[in-house]
């Protein structure tokens, strides 16, 4: 698709999904959660940090001021588009500089024991082989190193997305519904703990963290989520009347979370910390 085609108006794709992700989802959602993850892992001056599946790099960027000039920060992702936005969005000369790397979480391009801290925010659920990714995170940690991962709790704990996924399934199709559900794996805390232990981690601790997400309207909720994901195409391809029905269904379903400023709903995540 050409850039011009992407920039047509309304529900058509206005920008690549990576740019929409950085614009719509990072400031209100992933940036505050990144600070919580870095607090949980007690990142310190001088630490060498790896942000696995960094996306547009919010965890890595938030880590820079905490590790200081004596530290090091690397962000790794499999998606070139996400990494391009990460590089564009980074301050001109962060100290330390951030090393953006393309790579696969299940085959990290680093020697054993290279990092003091490994973080992975809301990405383990998207990796084809989560066990292999956890083993790799463990391998690249130095002795005494620490890891922190966040993974959304199952869909039943995400009222906004239960409603959106059901409405998408009904009005756009099964695949669209499945896409909206994909960030919310069925893992419970015990399953996550077992995965981490089997990968070699010690002292695995899991907390339930609750935050919230706000949008100025239901239409913006659906539009921004779609723009930041592969949902944009099937929604843009639907008839205008179908999109109207989709919005109405989400409005009806989220009536209890609608207020004077739009819509707000809780979001729940596991935060896993462990020693290497
Ligand atoms: C929801 S985003 C989270 C990005 C980032 N951690 C954040 O907090 O904004 C999930 C990311 O996982 C990346 N990803 C999925 N599978 C991967 C893999 N096998 N190796 C590296 N990155 C992967 C995707 O490209 C995407 O950027």
Write a brief structural summary.
The chain is α/β, with parallel strands linked by helices. The chain has a domain at 3-155 and 184-212 and 267-275: 3-Layer(aba) Sandwich (Rossmann fold).
Please describe what this structure looks like.
The protein is an alpha/beta fold. The chain has a domain of 191 residues: Vaccinia Virus protein VP39 (Rossmann fold). It contains eleven helices and eight strands. Strands 1, 2, 3, 4, 5, 6, 7 and 8 form an eight-stranded mixed β-sheet that branches. Helix 4 links the parallel strand 2 and strand 3. Helix 2 crosses helix 3 and helix 6 runs antiparallel to helix 11. The termini are far apart. Bound molecules: S-adenosylmethionine. S-adenosylmethionine (SAM) binds next to helix 3.
- CATH architecture identity of the domain at 3-155 and 184-212 and 267-275: 3-Layer(aba) Sandwich
Average pLDDT value? 94
Heterogens: S-adenosylmethionine
Task: Report low-confidence residues grouped into runs of 5 or more.
Answer: 1-9
CATH superfamily of the domain at 3-155 and 184-212 and 267-275: Vaccinia Virus protein VP39
Form type = globular
Classified by CATH, the class of the domain at 3-155 and 184-212 and 267-275 is Alpha Beta
Key features of this structure:
276 residues; alpha/beta; Rossmann fold; eight-stranded mixed beta sheet; 11 helices; 43% helix; disordered N terminus; binds S-adenosylmethionine
């Amino acid at each position: 698709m050409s850039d011009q085609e992407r920039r047509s108006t309304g529900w058509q794709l206005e920008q690549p999904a990576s740019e929409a992700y950085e614009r719509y989802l990072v400031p209100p959602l992933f940036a505050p959660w990144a600070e919580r993850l870095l607090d949980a892992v007690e990142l310190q001056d001088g630490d060498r940090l790896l942000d696995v599946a960094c996306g547009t790099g919010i965890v890595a960027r938030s880590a820079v001021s905490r590790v200081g000039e004596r530290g090091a920060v690397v962000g790794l992702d499999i998606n070139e588009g996400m990494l391009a936005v990460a590089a564009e969005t980074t301050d001109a000369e962060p100290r330390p500089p951030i090393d953006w790397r393309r790579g696969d979480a299940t085959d990290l391009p680093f020697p054993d024991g290279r990092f003091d801290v490994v973080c992975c925010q809301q990405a383990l659920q998207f990796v084809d082989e989560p066990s292999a990714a956890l083993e790799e995170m463990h391998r690249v940690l130095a002795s005494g190193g620490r890891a922190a991962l966040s993974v959304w709790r199952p869909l039943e704990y995400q009222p906004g997305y239960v409603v959106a996924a059901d409405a998408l399934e009904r009005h756009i199709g099964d695949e669209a519904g499945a896409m909206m559900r994909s960030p919310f794996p069925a893992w419970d805390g015990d399953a996550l703990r077992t995965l981490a232990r089997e990968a070699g981690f010690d002292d695995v601790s899991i907390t339930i963290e609750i935050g919230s997400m706000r949008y100025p309207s239901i239409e913006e909720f659906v539009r921004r989520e779609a723009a930041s994901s592969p949902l944009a195409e099937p929604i843009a391809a639907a008839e205008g009347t179908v999109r109207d029905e989709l919005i109405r269904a989400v409005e009806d379903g989220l009536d209890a979370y609608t207020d004077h400023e739009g819509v707000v709903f809780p979001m729940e995540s596991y935060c896993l910390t462990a020693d290497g």
